[in-house]
Amino acid sequence: MIELKSKREIEIIKENGKIVADTLRFLGDKIKPGMKTLELDRLAERYIRDHNAIPAFKGYRGFPSNICVSVNNEVVHGIPGQRIISEGELVSVDLGVLKNGYYADGAFTFPVGQVGSEAQKLTEVTYQALNCGIRAALEGRHLSDVSHAIQSHVEQNGFSVVRDLVGHGIGKQMHEEPQIPNFGKPGEGPMLKSGMILAIEPMVNSGSFEIKTLEDNWTVVTADGSLSAHFEHTVAITENGAVILTE
User: Fold this and answer.
1) Average pLDDT, stretch 141-169?
2) What is d(CA 156, CA 153) in angstroms, rounded to the nearest whole number?
3) What are the pLDDT digits (tens) for 220-246?
4) Which of 189, 193, 195, 216 is 20 to 30 A away from residue 167, measured at CA?
5) Which residues contact 13 (CB under 8 A, 6 or more apart)?
């Protein structure tokens, strides 16, 4: 069942979403060649807790870290560790916060220094696809209109959307109904209603959409070794259009 949120609940999630956005911006300013991905995890935890919130990912379904850090061909769920970030890499950071009983979730892919033309285009197209999906998230339209808008933009630019992972509803739980694929035909699925909160998150590969999970049982990578990018916003459906809560 899709739970509609009250205006008060949306305001709480928006406050949490600001912490998500500010944390991502803070980390983006800190990422540089030579640092370990574990350093980003420690910086994120300190920043989130300094804002009286809880890093939502730590311990969630057994995940061992505060944030996900996925590099180059890693799609999502990368575990921060001793990996050293290098010039020209793509670093995707996904994080959530819990405060006052509600969650907010967001992700951003950061190009490190000067990246190749393919990596630059992939990053831009994935971010654009997120915005295409958000623009399609209008009251009275269908959930698959969001999915179709994302897929269309990605494929028009020669890339592929990951099909085995989806966006999701969010609120009192990190993952709520509905699931939000990043592909599909328009005009299908639940009708969008004011009060829905959606975590829209295109995951886009420069090669095939196929993925696999590494032996750590968390890190998802592209099956063909191609690059991947990931952007995510928590969005409220309102009578006046979609409102980004993690901005």
Assistant:
1) 98
2) 5
3) 999 999 999 999 999 999 999 999 999
4) 216
5) 5, 102, 103, 104, 170, 171, 197, 234, 236, 245
Q: According to the model, what pLDDT value does residue 218 have?
A: 98
Amino acid identity, residue 148? H
- So where are the chain's domains? 7-244
Q: Closest by alpha carbon to 244, among 135, 88, 144, 127?
A: 135
> d(Cα 93, Cα 232) in Å, to the nearest integer?
10
At 37, the pLDDT band (50, 70, 90 cuts) reads very high
**What angle in degrees, to the nearest 10, is found between the helix axes of 117-136 and 143-156?**
160
Residues 6+ apart with CB under 8 A from 178: 2, 143, 168, 169, 189, 190, 198
pLDDT band of 42, cuts 50, 70, 90: very high
Confirm if 227 and 122 have CB atoms less than 8 A apart. Answer: yes
Question: What is the pLDDT at residue 54?
Answer: 98
d(CA 226, CA 216): 20
Task: Domain 7-244: give its CATH superfamily.
Answer: Creatinase/methionine aminopeptidase superfamily (3.90.230.10)
Residue pair 216/79 in contact (Cβ under 8 Å)? The answer is yes
Predicted local distance difference test score (pLDDT) of residue 18: 98
The β-bridge relationship of strands 90-99 and 68-71 is antiparallel
> In which residue are the tokens 């309102």 written?
238
pLDDT in tens, 44-79: 999 999 999 999 999 999 999 999 999 999 999 999
Token pair for residue 162? 């990951």
Cα distance between the two ends of the chain: 27
